[in-house]
Design brief:
By secondary structure, the chain is an alpha/beta fold. Helix content is 42%, strand content 23%. Monomer.
């Protein structure tokens, strides 16, 4: 029965469609942009002191929407300073979207963009082979650590590339979010693709404490409207359920007991909040800023 379930990542178009709906129904990008607007200027306030150029590394930069917001804050803090922005991103499609976004954005004259179509571990291997240990003033990984095999090793490698006044920013789902609760409880029963790990800020903090790195964490409150998930046969609701469970066609392929349990769980106050007849899933994120 359960064998007909497969990972959402195994069907690219289904993944893209469910992700688009997730962004439409959640405050995911808004909460990140608010963090960039309000907190980031303080975080980057000394990364470029006395420098004629600032080196920024975006690991898993995606289509660049958040990257460009980050760059605008660095520009505002260090007007006229050259910014070298390098992007590691394995998806050619995302790089294309990023380049299109750059082409449509004004005031990027002092920013030099370089894209590397590879994963973070491919980048690490390539640099080690070339014996290149380029240092960075700001490194960020936004919603990408789920796709890394060895998280502590990855964090330690990129941490080793920080300049003395640099900062290393990680954003991912919070340990207090509905995601963390769902994954802990149902992860073993869902068709987890080996490309993707269920990891939250709680896991990352634990690992940073073990490694002995200094960091500061910020909670970014966010919600996702999952009301449609409870309307039988609702196409949008079914796609959102696919996204929540990382399962392709979850409604059609999940065993009935698992489906019922997850639907029950989704309604619990630890996962979601009911307001004005709607159900809002706890989509909280965490921003973790690691010191050199």
């Amino acid at each position: 029965m359960a064998s007909s379930m497969r990972s959402l990542l195994s069907d690219h178009s289904q993944y893209v469609e469910s992700f688009r709906l997730f962004l439409e129904n959640s405050t995911e990008h808004q909460c990140m942009l608010e963090f960039v607007e309000k907190k980031l200027p303080g975080i980057i306030s000394s990364i470029g002191n006395g420098k004629s150029a600032i080196n920024i590394l975006s690991v898993g930069g995606g289509s660049g929407e958040i990257d460009l917001q980050i760059l605008s804050k660095v520009q505002a803090k260090y007007p006229g300073v050259t910014i070298n922005n390098e992007v590691i991103e394995p998806s050619g499609e995302q790089i294309l979207s990023y380049k299109e976004r750059v082409a449509k954005t004004s005031n990027l004259e002092n920013i030099k963009f370089t894209w590397h179509k590879e994963t973070s571990s491919e980048y690490e291997s390539r640099m080690n082979e070339k014996k290149e240990f380029k240092k960075w003033d700001f490194i960020h990984m936004i919603q990408m650590l789920y796709y890394v095999k060895d998280i502590p090793a990855t964090i330690q490698y990129f941490h080793s590339l920080l300049e003395t006044k640099a900062k290393f920013l990680i954003i991912l789902v919070s340990g207090t979010s509905g995601w963390a609760r769902l994954w802990k409880k149902y992860g073993p029963r869902l068709p987890l693709n080996d490309l993707c790990l269920y990891v939250s800020s709680a896991d990352i903090k634990e690992q940073l404490n073990t490694i002995g790195l200094k960091y500061q964490a910020y909670e970014l409150p966010s919600t996702m409207d999952v009301t449609n998930c409870f309307i039988k046969g609702n196409k949008e609701g079914e796609l959102l359920l696919d996204f929540l469970t990382e399962t392709c066609y979850f409604s059609q392929t999940a065993p009935l007991d698992l489906k019922n349990e997850i639907m029950e769980e989704l309604k619990k106050p630890e996962c979601s909040e009911e307001k004005d007849g709607k159900v809002f899933f706890n989509n909280n994120l965490s921003a973790i800023v690691i010191e050199p």
